[in-house]
Amino acid sequence: MTLRVLAAMSGGVDSAVAAARVAEAGHDVTGVHLALSKNPQSYRTGARGCCTVEDSHDARRAADVIGIPYYVWDMSEEFDREVVQDFVAEYEAGNTPNPCLRCNEKIKFEAVLDRAVALGFDAVATGHHVRKVDGRLVRSVDEGKDQSYVLGVLTAEQLEHAMFPLGDCTKEEVRAEADRRGLSVADKPDSHDICFIADGDTKGFLNDRIGARPGPIQDEDGKVLGTHDGSHTFTVGQRKGLGLGGAPDPRYVLSIEPVENTVTVGPRESLRVDEITGVRPVWSGSAPLVEPTECHVQLRAHGEVYPARVWQSESEEGPELLVRLAEPAKGVAPGQAVVVYDGDTVLGSATISGTARSEGAEAAGGAVAAEAVRSV
Questions:
Q1: Residue ranges of the tRNA-specific 2-thiouridylase MnmA-like central domain (predicted)?
Q2: Has residue 368 got a pLDDT over 50?
Q3: Is 289 known as a binding-site position?
């Protein structure tokens, strides 16, 4: 069956090979590059770039080699509203957002997909390293490049119209294939950091948008240890840049209170939590888990995977995801995603809204094992 496929082409090697594979499979493929900034010079350039003018040119050259039509879509207004402004607002609220995850959710698999379907396309293909098996999201065979975490926010309906041609191969195999196909991006370095912060200075970017808001840095007992220029420039788990001078022991950011503009710090041990609450749960690979269920969760991109009990409950604000870790985790930041897995398969996700440490955190593993919980 021949499909009309829109291939999202970022200008990198992955999206180029993904588009080539879909075209070679006999589908009717059109390449599209997303212009995400009204002023591209304000975004990263060169090897550290993402979605830049150079990337647009690289995507066009790849489309020419593949032999498919190519267009540029201006998504700058949507990107600024859904990703950049959200990034600032989340930091201002004391959270630590993941802008790449937000971009996948709101731009690549919402705005773009909606437009593609309206134009008569059957699917959108991307170069993400992830598989789709029986309609569910599954980790890539390349564990080091797996991107299932940053796609864990997608709905089942979005996945229905998504194609991920690279999930069955490693990054090295992708580069080798690009070279065989004569694609000039075969050796192009991967993009890094946040594309819309040109100089990589996240603190400066946030200060420009939010402004300086001096406040106290305190310990767990409320004793003021120093001051800061704005709680929005900190993240849970942060150690460097606290400005505490000669503190005898390392201090880490434990929590951020944006209303009172306070940053609480303490020893690394105090970062340990075993209870997590998530809001806006999305279930793409399972019906909502309304009973405590043994799963695994990932708490940040390329982060450690933890065994846990997971279930959805109802609150006054709506459904929320409750997670009890078998072993405490450190540096879990509100604003990040918690993605729920059954083995390598994504079941669902939620945005972390709160964390806690139960009194029996050190024995959490034994407690979980002793309780009767349903297995996936």
A1: 203-266
A2: no
A3: no
Pick the catalytic residue from 50, 100, 103, 295: 103
Amino acid code (one letter) for 83: V
Catalytic pick from 50, 51, 100, 195?
Answer: 195
Backbone dihedral angles phi then psi of residue 323, each to the nearest 5 degrees = -130, 130
Q: Tell me if 230 is assigned to a ligand binding site.
A: no
User: At a CB cut-off of 8 Å and minimum separation 6, what does 25 contact?
Assistant: none
Number of folded domains that form the chain:
3
Q: What is the DSSP letter of 331?
A: -
Q: Is 195 among the residues known to form the active site?
A: yes
CATH of the domain at 239: 2.30.30.280
User: Within a domain: residue 209?
Assistant: no
Those residues whose C-beta lies under 8 Å from the C-beta of residue 159, and which sit 6 or more positions away, are 132, 135, 136, 137, 284
The 10s digit of each residue's pLDDT in 135-184 is 999 999 999 999 999 999 999 999 999 999 999 999 999 999 999 999 99
163 is in an annotated binding site: no
Residue 195: inside a domain, yes or no?
A: no
